[in-house]
Design brief:
The complex is a heterotetramer, with two copies of chain A and two copies of chain B.
Chain A: E1 4-10, H1 16-23, E2 30-37, H2 50-54, E3 60-67, H3 71-86, E4 91-97, E5 99-102, E6 106-114, H4 117-134, E7 137-143, E8 147-149, H5 154-165
Parallel strand pairs in A: 1-4
Antiparallel strand pairs in A: 2-6, 3-5, 3-7, 4-6, 7-8
Helix pairs in contact in A: 3-4, 4-5
Chain B: E1 5-11, H1 13-19, E2 23-28, E3 32-33, H2 34-42, H3 46-52, E4 58-61, E5 64-66, E6 71-72, E7 77-81
Parallel strand pairs in B: 1-7
Antiparallel strand pairs in B: 1-2, 3-6, 4-5, 4-7
Helix pairs in contact in B: 2-3
Classes of the chains: A alpha+beta, B alpha+beta.
Chain lengths: 168, 87, 168, 87
């Protein structure tokens, strides 16, 4: 069974349409896509309530993504291969953007094509958890008045642990 | 005395900003543990010591994540960085 | 918090691009899309091996989707509301096609927009499990030489049970 | 004797094909259980009896899924169908 793995780190935007079409396989009944976007109301540590944000508390303008050229690309291919070893996948696409990404911009795309939906869902969610914990990428939040590096969330580590408990 | 070999140490994200440099070159003569290498950098200046102190650091040696106890061989590329936050 | 629920039963094809754009919300960092397609090598009961299929065993030409007009639409809205009551969702799109769908055609789309990826993934997967078990839709497989109604899979019932065990 | 009221019974998918009709109208005088209603249809013809026999059936009354023990009131719309296979 061949599997096509397509991983890219890029500054330019990606097209969900193009990637969705490229993922399709005649023997795949399921395509799952995850798209991560820069949302408003982003708080680097403690979440701000909507009321505070709209009342003029420092507003997020953009996220800046830094990576480790070489290692980041290799890490992403490595996690794609781990997912492919664990689930019945036929195509995996991972695109992560770097540089300055204003609010509403697309940051990351994970796309999976599989004969069966459960494999596609599990692999997509696993890859997002691995991306959040194991790939050298760092976010800096640029607010109107200040900037701050985003701190790693405990909930992302917890999410990662799920994949260690499950049988492969 | 052995010839020393340059060992590149890279810094990323908040650590890069705190160190005020993206990298340093260390002239190592013998293999050292990562934690010893971090100590070595901290002794170079008070600014480096402050940047490295009390911070959760991840380490990659030759682009592979390793622990602080891992040995660094002269000529390796070491990267130090905060916990990742991509995705 | 407002939530937009968009459910449709239709014979015509849908555009993942259009639905993806319609799902995006300024406060949503996560969009998860599931697209189900008519795959080759489809077997109504026991799976055929690829060897058999390519060796000329009865080949799937199309799936035909039957529904219960009125009840199907209401059931889909009901499951979307259940997902929205359980997870932090801002937009839900469910489109299910009916009629004759040749191989490679799109059958179903479930799209979720949420502030957080875990809610988006869970809701999307829950909705697919509910669609497979609780919504009046039936597939008939048209092969080159014969036709057969698709039988319900035990694995889909098992998948459904997961949502009963989890806390809401 | 009470006036009877038409109760529509709809069939879908493989059951519709086996019954060779998408629906029947029954003149019910009193409420009956779904399982009694199915028996009633089976007594109408050997073909109906054969179509309904030994088959896992789901039931909706007025577009709500119910059990075979649910009561059907004259004038209700009943739907009988095999386990669903959409998605």
């Amino acid at each position: 069974m061949t599997i096509s793995i397509n991983c890219r780190i890029q500054t330019e935007d990606f097209s969900v349409t193009t990637e969705y079409q490229a993922l399709q396989r005649p023997d795949c009944g399921a395509v799952v896509l995850f798209s991560g976007l820069v949302r408003e109301h982003f708080a680097p540590i403690a979440p701000l309530s909507c009321e505070n944000t709209s009342a003029g508390v420092d507003r997020l303008l953009a996220l800046e993504l830094e990576h480790y050229p070489g290692m980041t690309e290799r890490s992403i291919i490595a996690i794609a291969q781990q997912a492919a070893a664990r689930y019945d996948l036929r195509a995996v696409t991972i695109i992560h953007r770097i540089g300055v990404l204003p609010v509403h911009e697309q940051i990351v795309l994970v796309g999976i094509a599989s004969p069966h939906r459960r494999d596609a869902f599990a692999a997509c969610e696993m890859l997002m958890d691995f991306l959040k914990n194991e790939v050298p990428l760092w976010k800096k939040a640029h607010f109107q008045q200040s900037s701050a590096w985003v701190e790693a969330k405990a909930s992302d580590k917890t999410a990662l642990a799920r994949w260690e408990q499950r049988p492969s | 005395m052995k010839a020393s070999q340059d060992t590149a140490v890279l810094f990323f994200a908040s650590l890069r900003e705190a160190m005020k440099t993206p990298n340093l070159n260390l002239a190592l003569e013998n293999p050292v543990q990562v934690c010893e290498l971090v100590q070595l950098i901290a002794t170079q200046s008070a600014a480096y010591a402050a940047a490295l102190a009390g911070r959760e650091l991840l380490v990659a040696v030759n682009e592979q994540l390793v622990t602080q106890q891992c040995m660094v061989t002269p000529g390796d590329t070491v990267a130090l960085f905060p916990p990742v936050t991509g995705g």
